[in-house]
Amino acid sequence: MRREIPQLHKQPGTALVLSGGATKAFYFHLGVLRVLGVQDISSIVGTSAGAIAGALIASGATVETIIAALEEKEVYVPRYEGYIRFVGSRLMFKPSAKYIAAQGLQTGFTALRFLAALPLMLNQDVVAEALDRLFLSQRCAPGFFSASEIEGLFRKVLPSNDFADLDIDLYVTATALDTHERAVFNGQYHFEDKGTHFMNDVPVHKAVRASTSLPGMFEPVKIKDKYYIDGEVKRSLSMDVGIALADRVVVSHTYQPLLQTTGRSIHDMGWLNIFKQSIHMVLHERIAIWRDLYAQEYPTKEVVWIEPDPEDMDFFLAPEFSFRPEVQKLIIRSGELAARQALERLAIKEG
User: Burial, 189: exposed, middle or buried (Cβ in 10 Å; 0-12, 13-18, 19+)?
Assistant: First the structure.
């Protein structure tokens, strides 16, 4: 069964697929694009961090300008007739006061009720009861941070927030929280197909905010009476959109588990890195399944996969959310290295 979306029209050039993965993925994609260039890119499919990078590139910003803005905090762009000013950690992780207060009150009330009921729990598993009540009380906050600053950034700096006005055809994905549909916001198509809703009447800033709404951290975004969260939840990478748009597809993603065959085990790197490794293994395996399916079904398509070196310890240990210049530069270099390695493999294959 072919998985191509028949309603989409194939274009000349290259479709670029950019993954999510927090600020780490954003820096990585910049490194990849610094090596690849954007001259032949006719469409971009982006999710979360990939949606942010994709929207900037599709709007005419150069990779060097974006990197300069990271280093200098803001850079004037004649094309935009204004400044690109990146959101820092204080604004990106802006606490949602009303939800934090509501959840704090609810959790406090639950704790008081539990303490009052302790004398009646002499023969019960008190720890289990406390955990049950704690988890059941977490119903007042849809997220603890607001992504409004990201939306505001794009609303202010882009020459246009209409997908149809962008220099490069852009597709931004998100996931409908209640109906499990994948949304693909774009400037051309408006239809529903097998659990995917293409919409061409949503502004870029709203689409990017929805795509970056990481569940549990950021409040879901309401669009047309539905709430949306990160697009990677429903479909990792959304390669099917890229496959439908071009015969040559370049995929950049950061879901690479660390390969440790000798020396220090990840076991000795702490619970957070064990958790990170586990998540990356799950996502990498999920991507590998889709990768094999597309290779079998579309043998004539040229797909270039760009991912971090599996033995790149520095990249693996780098924080997912970091705004420190030294971390930004390290991850950008990892993206550059990964792109060069991918191009070398492609040259060997074609040679």
Answer: middle
CB 301 within 8 A of CB 67: no
| pLDDT, tens digit, 9 for 90 and up, residues 307-340 | 999 999 999 999 999 889 899 999 999 999 999 9
| pLDDT at 83 > cutoff 80 | no
Q: CA–CA separation, 277 vs 259, rounded Å?
A: 10
Collect all residues with Cβ–Cβ distance below 8 Å to 330 and sequence separation of at least 6.
314, 315, 318
Task: Tell me how far apart the alpha carbons of residues 155 and 207 are, in angstroms, rounded to a whole number.
Answer: 11
* 3 vs 171: which has the higher pLDDT: 171
Tokens of residue 94, six digits: 């802006």
Q: Is 164 helix (H, G, I), strand (E, B) or coil?
A: helix
Rounded-to-integer distance, Cα 348 and Cα 351, Å: 5
Coil, strand, or helix at residue 220? coil
Instruction: Tell the burial category of 149 from Cβ atoms under 10 Å away from its Cβ (0-12, 13-18, 19+).
Output: middle
332 to each of 60, 261, 308, 339, how far by Cα in Å? 20, 26, 11, 11
Query: Which stretches does DSSP call E strand in 137-273?
Result: 169-176, 182-185, 191-193, 196-199, 221-223, 226-230, 248-252
Question: CA–CA separation, 336 vs 326, rounded Å?
Answer: 15
